[in-house]
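Incident review: delayed structure delivery

Summary: a single-chain prediction request sat in the queue longer than the usual turnaround. Root cause was a stuck worker, restarted by the on-call engineer. No data loss occurred. The affected request and its eventual output are reproduced below so the record is complete for anyone auditing the incident later.

Affected input:
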Amino acid sequence: MKILILSTFGHYGGAATCSKRLYLALKKHGMDVDLRVVQFYDGHQIKSILSHSFFSKLRIKLQFILERLLVLFSVSDKQYLYKFSPGSTGLKLSDHPLVVNADIIHLHWVSFGFVSIKEVADVAKKKKVIWTQHDMWSFTGGCHYALHCEKYQDTCNDCFYLEDSSFSKDIQTKKINSWERNIFKLLTTSHWLGECASKSKVFNGWDVGILPTPIDTTVFRPLDKLKIKEKYTLDPHKYYVLFGAVDLQDERKGFRYLLEALHMLKEKIKNMHLITFGKQTRDVFDGKVTAMGQIDSEEQLNEIYNLADVFVLPSIQDNLPNTVMEAMSCGVPVVAFDCGGVSDMVSHQENGFLAPNKDANVLAEGISYFDDKKKRTTAGAKAREKVLSAFSEDVLVPKYLELYNQTIK
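Output delivered after worker restart:
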């Protein structure tokens, strides 16, 4: 059985991480699997589906630029440039040799000019297709996360992302007209996203499966905290709060709520110290901060999680965040808003702390709750147990193999 996994990116973003982790896990278990991307690929582990010719690479860049220009002239604010995709352009994949020779095509995040709405249907008419959703795009009128909007459940008109409301309605209609019911196997990685998909006008009546992406628990694992803090020259007597995000300016990541919570606790927890990783500046908090910057190595990322006493995720809408799963796999309790797929992983006051969405006061309570060493040690152990029992490769890879076998039959 030949499995071809397709993803726009090889390294950038959570969906790219998920597709790569699934690929490596399947390969480790002896599957005949290939992962191909179009952007930011690693020639050693991940290869591009494009040929090495100059014109092939130029074409995908032009498609990306043209699509972004279309979005630029349609959105109500330039900050939405990468939060909306029309799905109108893409490669011709249905006749590609890798697609022709594969038994199953497993799509992941394929926007930004890689696979168009029409091409998803064309491939699915020729091959068995599984499509794992990492955001809401497949059933909205073009946005990747709808935030407060639920119009995707009926008609995506009057979109707050756009100047012209008919644009989103036309995109949603195109999806409905292009994709026959269950023409491909629809997967989500969280119960929340599965429920959203089932309620949508696009996928109403479809069979929606829920299957998370596995994590390598031998990479993300608990380490000796004292030794790691010594390595990074950090005071072992401080209370370390960890936060990580690709983009602090993204409203969905809710960073302002974390800042509010930290300001509330400055006087209460005198030894509190914030550690950050990702694309961000050092001037995010007027308290004590250690900014690690962007991390490319999973081994180093594992060390950073082990520096933390607690990991905080203030996202106001998220699917199944890799950062939460990684922190928990390292035995670090998580404080987060009770939204999206977070509750699939975090159980309140058991392996973490869940606050009502957008409530910075209760988020602060959660951070304060784990200032107690005994509580965070107990919760950290249970967090690790949760990942081992529900999200490890040993648990999830057999489920993927069963899915592939059922799909072939």
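Verification: The chain has a mean pLDDT of 91.
Action items: add queue-age alerting; document worker restart procedure.
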